Amino acid sequence: MAEVRRLPAPRQGDWDWQGSAACRGLDTANFYHPENERGPSRVKREQQAKAVCSSCPVLENCLRWALNAREPYGVWGGLSTEERETLLTQRAV
What we know:
It contains 3 helices and no strands.
């Protein structure tokens, strides 16, 4: 379970961007890996999710939210969990 104490405090408008998200209404299973998913099936699912993100008008908002919240699961803002963690680690250095 995500550590909710480290989430940014909600502010008016924080989630407004979601109404314009390219993923809105799509099955969330496209963006979150099932338990024990590995290898080619995980890569393929993540590539499909990132393809949706690539045309998203709110990509930057989504990525900003995921980085600030340290979202531990799924593809957000066109990046996987591992890619976001790498980006956060690079920023800390």
